[in-house]
Fold:
Amino acid sequence: MRNNKFLLLLLGALAIPVISFAQDEVKKDSVQDAKEVKNRNVMLNASSDNQPRQISIGLPSSLSATIYEDGLPVSYNVWPCLPYLYWTGTAAHGRMGLMSLGESAITNGAVNYAVQSYTRQGGGNFEGHLNYKTNTFNLQRFDMAVAGPIANGWSYSFGAYFNLDPGSNKLADVQYATDMKIFKAGITKTLNNNRGKINLFYRYAYTKSMSDSYGPFVYVGDGSVKEYNGFELGHDGFLPANGLITYTDVMTGESKTINRKDGIHALNNSLIFNFNYKLNNSMNLDIRSKYNYANSYYATLALAGVGQAMASSGYTYAYDYNGNQAGSIFTGNYNSRYMLRDIAFERDWLTTAELTGANNGHKWRVGTNLFWNRQGIQASTGVLAHTVEADPAWLLHDGSQTYAANTGGEYYDTHETKFSLYLSDEKQLTNRLWLSAGARLEYYSVGGKNALAYLNATDESATYSENIRTIGFNVADGKITKFSKNWVNPVATINGRYTISHGFGAIGEYVYAIQHPNSQDFAGAYMPILDAVDIKLGRLGLFWNTPWMQLVSQVSVISQSNYKSRTQFTNPNNASDVVTLPITNDVQTKGWTTDVVLNPFKGFTFHGLLTIQDPKYKNFTMTPTFSDGTSKNYDFTDKVTTGVSKTIIELDPSYSFDKFRIWASFRYQSKQYINKTNSLYFNGRWETFGGVDYKVNKILSLSANVINILNQKGASGSIGAADLIEDVSAYKNYLMAGSYIRPFTVEFSARLNF
Structure:
């Protein structure tokens, strides 16, 4: 009775945090824990050295992986405060993993794989960890963590992380592509002979992210690319040495100038409280609460396309450059950059409480989230141009560095609230049948200020014409609008396993989730379509476990309705005529995935993954109207989704002997379509990694790793002018610019554990 009163008091006072990390040993007639995904090294990323990779589920990828720390999201949403600017895997993390799709749906309401990380806690013994990494491009990374006792059940932990990364392509306007600092401090109190713990963690993160992984290349026309004028992707910089950028402020209409290296930074302070206690009757109470304070300042220069300037095009040199005087006429190839000067903030109070227990063969839990968020963004936009070469020069267009100012300008200042209740239960019903089921019911509200011109997504005439995103738009000359919406978002999951014979059986899973628009959907000129976003995932397959093999093979269908985006479309008849439109469509992917882990002899492990899928647009029609009156209806239904491969392969062998471990990882992505008409595509590519680890003694370990062993370029991108085209004859040996994966890199690291 005393424990029950204590439980009710805590739940009522905090209403609050987390996800259990319960994990059973894999038994012969089971598959891996339904809450966690194994065999995926999320920090082994071909595109970034310190960001977690995103695991494809057949739907378009997000701006960032969803990242959890100590049971709560690092950022409330992946936008406007990108979580990877405040988090990376460090020595201060005691453990890290990947949350499954069903678990993410129940505990967070989102159907995606989420990175989980837990801060190292203090204990009865001192421990220290010191890591150092460098590479052939002079990366300097220092990472340390210590933890130990204080007295009377009190203990401490502390971590510090410094990442100074110049990148492989020496950018002329900055010294470091990434300058990241994270400090973590924690204090722990052990309760009642280890029956419970109270933790208080503080994290400070400051990042200047100034990388620019873009470059020019020639698109041959058959899915391959070739070098342009000696520009070496991954090694040459594609931004001018002069980092000054002039833009029109979206709030005031004033002309402002920033230096790119000073205009890109992110600050975060967060405080996390955790209470965990083992109650009577095999129950456990876990409460986590977090206050989060984050600011982000972006000066993003996304690629907008390559064009050719004639003497009459109005392009001139911005300053003296390679014998060309400032103001002299420029002719030749130029690269356009779509500039986003985003000023964003996020303030959160996030709380989750979870009660778990085990009785009569059941493993159950009841949880609640109470998430409060305040966020805002001021996004000034424009187009800039520079020459197409290594370390290029800025160009002026009709005398201005930035033109088409704020035609994509965004503004909102909003608050969101999520209150949810969720529960799950799992039980071995018979010797052969195991079932797990869960449900979540979330009350979600969003409201605040923005600058809408169209109060309905399908309006043809503006209610507030002053808010139409014409050149020079600014909020001061427009009209502040207000909105308030609320919905109920349900989630349901069921997961089952039936053993047919010893070590062999069938598995199945179904996940259903409903979501509604969030703050960023209200940032533009159009009220978004408010219809529910339905996400459905169904999987059915077989498992087979032996002493030397664990295999799972499944067929699946995943679909999402009302997928929203704001997209720029180019007039097929005039590459300079661009409109920004809100787009809503459905996506569906049918697939087959086989995942296997082999241990044929001592010391050797092999993980293999094969996914064959068919990602397609559904219910996707649109009719863009351009400034010259050109208008045409397009139907992309059953076209393959851009940027998503049909075949994905992962091969991960490793061999340990004596004090050595040799490992490799090979990942293949098949061709990806560039445009929605599926008339242009990039060929498939391999991402390759390998390394050797050597344990000198119980304290010191050394590693040498290679990134991109095959030195593939991994070129990808879009051709804005080609998104609507069907005749590809003009895109043979076509000069474009795009992104690429990290070039061949050798890394060296040392780890001290004491």
Notes: The CA atoms of residues 339 and 669 lie 30 Å apart.
